[in-house]
Predict the structure of Aminoglycoside adenylyltransferase.
Amino acid sequence: MDGLTERQLASVDDVVEAAAAAGIEVWLRGGWAMDFHLGQVTRPHVDVDWYCWRADAERLAATLTGRGWRPDPRMPVEVQLDLFRGDVEVSFAYLSRDDTGRVTVGGGPWTGTPLPAGMLDGPRGEIGSHTAPIISVAAQIEFKEMFPVWMPERPRRPKDADDVARLRASLITSAATGEDPAQLRSPVPRAAWTDEGSERA
């Protein structure tokens, strides 16, 4: 495990600890969510991607800046919260709920778009002694499979196909995930990917 990976794992611990102390909910998404589901680091990651509630974003930013994190000026805070500390970058895409209680995109041009049902209901993930809330495996697969359909100008990356294969294999070999394979392709508008299209992890 290289130094950056170790620092990214330490950042996961820091975010989880800070958020819990402040009573703020967060969930890993992207490549790190997959790794925490699988229980191992499968490949290098450029940054660490999260979800948080839009209503908590300001308080979360204040909590993390108090722990040495600094805002990244490249991303408008209205769209998502991006922070860095040293060579570690973290980003928080926003979540909201609509009038029916469905989880929706909480920031940016696709605000209000429904996200996959049950996305926030999966079990916590872990890598060794590190634990964190993660989005459900079904949602992880859906995002990675459907992104090229929602955004044809951005073809599927080889690592996305590899990730989907790993995630699907994990569902076959582990009943402990609690995921329903019949729901892996629930229809979600292309906008539901929100900013995951720019995810570098």
In short: DSSP finds five helices and eight strands in the chain. The first helix runs from residue 3 to 22. The beta strands are 26-28, 48-53, 70-71, 80-85, 88-97, 103-105, 125-127, 130-132.
